Amino acid sequence: MLKGKCILVGITGGIAAYKICELIRMYKKNGADVKVICTPNAMNFVTKLTLQNLSQNEVYVQEFDVKEWKPEHISLADEADIMVIAPATANTISKIAQGIADNLLTSVACAFSKKIIIAPAMNCNMWNNETVQENIKKLQSKGVEILEPESGFLACGYLGKGRLCSLEKIFNETVEALSYSQKLAGKKVVITSGGTIEDIDPVRYISNYSSGKMGFALANVAKEMGAEVVLITTKPFEAPYKIVKVKSALDMQKAVEDEFETSDIVIMAAAVADYRVKNQAEQKMKKVAGVNETLTLELVQNPDILKCLCEKKIHQLVVGFCAESENLLENAKEKIAKKGCDYLIANDISRSDIGFSSDDNEVTILEKSGKIEKLEKASKKVIARKILEYIYE
After folding, report:
1. Are residues 195 and 173 part of one domain?
2. Mean pLDDT over residues 145-171, rounded?
3. Comparing C-alpha atoms, which of 345, 309, 349, 306 is closest to residue 327?
4. Is 99 left (phi over 0), alpha (psi -120 to 50) or beta?
5. Chain-wide mean pLDDT for the chain?
6. What is the CATH number of the domain that holds 196?
7. Which residue range forms the structural domain that includes residue 313?
8. What is the structure's pLDDT at 129?
9. Whether residue 303 has a cis bond before it, omega within 30° of 0
10. Looking at 180-253, which runs of residues are DSSP E strands?
11. Which end of the chain is less congested by CB atoms within 10 angstroms, N or C?
12. Rounded Cα–Cα distance for residues 164 and 15 (Å)
């Protein structure tokens, strides 16, 4: 099940550390390449030699014990397909949640851009600590999967919630997470992002507040799910997939049409300007005191890219976005009927906590069949994952 996959196992300083020896064996038995990172305190509970024999790889502990030219915390993060931290102490969980990178394991977690699974184990009072729970929720909002501990008799003598969950659960969740990376394998996903720019003259333009963050998140998650991704964007962005930089609505229309025929899914997350200046000035427009106290711009409609795509789609699945400041559902229902797209993602831009430029979002998914699904507030990456999983299912 895990052949060809590299699993990074992080072990922290808890009594349940000895159980991870069996988890490593399970991973290896199913074909995975396993690399182990331990915190220094983990070495009080399990030996480096044992872990090396089980994983058949070097075991990493010290951050500056570098045997090769490349920084270990970066190379380990790049090589692995998934990171599993078990058992995870309250200390390590809180450090990762706050971005603290004071040992090799937390440094790798900070640099890890793929799926992370954390299986906590600790005293029940520590688990119920308000700060620890806040850190758990913060990690979950960023897309980290938390496998909650079980209730039972604890090594400290307490009876309560804090025992490491079963190894079978950790193993099964790892397999599920890695199979996630194949859900869109063989599919070409085209995504637009950012607000288009319509020039008035060489120094002025009409645009909007779109940051492109939602489109970036969708593109990154689609890549994680195994898709061939093409991101068409007005914003500067670097990623390990094809990026087409555009400026105006007409530029974006051409770029999308160039990719449309060979695409399987098109997601129009960009905020495309409805109008452009009819007669763009070739030179900077000068202000003359007492002469041109007012300025009138004649605007013409830009093409409706989403509607045009829907009219000519054959096998493609087309997803639209709409940004509304009032009557969200009513306007969204009207738009999906008018545009003819398969799905429409409705955003409420009147809220500062989820509007333009925010790192979080809360959206409503509308299907052309009439079904409606609301996704509660979360990071844009989590929302992107839920949107793509919803479409996939």
Report:
1. no
2. 89
3. 349
4. left
5. 92
6. 3.40.50.10300
7. 188-392
8. 95
9. no
10. 188-193, 198-201, 204-206, 228-233, 242-245
11. C
12. 10
State pLDDT tens for residues 268-297.
Answer: 999 999 999 999 999 998 887 777 778 889
For the chain, the farthest-separated pair of C-alpha atoms sits apart, in whole angstroms, at 86
Q: 172 and 75: one domain?
A: yes
Q: pLDDT tens, 189-218?
A: 999 999 999 999 999 999 999 999 999 999
Q: How many domains in the chain? A: 2
Please report where in the chains the tokens 């399987």 appear, as a residue: 264
The secondary element (H helix, E strand) that includes residue 97 is helix 90-98
Residue 276 bridge partners (DSSP):
300
Q: Looking at the domain assignment, is residue 53 inside a domain? A: yes
Q: Which helix (H) or strand (E) holds 250?
A: helix 249-260
Compute the distance between CA of residue 347 and CA of residue 214 in angstroms, rounded to an integer. Answer: 11
- Report pLDDT digits (tens) over 21-40: 999 999 999 999 999 999 99
In a domain, 135, yes or no: yes
Catalytic residues, by residue number, are: 156
Same domain, 216 and 159: no
Separation CA 93–CA 112 (nearest Å): 15
Nearest C-alpha neighbor of 118 from the set 150, 95, 84: 84
pLDDT in tens, 97-141: 999 999 999 999 999 988 899 999 999 999 999 999 999 999 987
Q: Which of 368, 370, 388, 386 lies closest to 378 in space, CA to CA? A: 386
* Residue 289 confidence (pLDDT): 74
Identify the domain boundary among 180, 214, 239.
Answer: 180
Q: Residue 239's pLDDT is what?
A: 83
Query: How far is 384 from 362, CA to CA, in rounded Å?
Result: 10
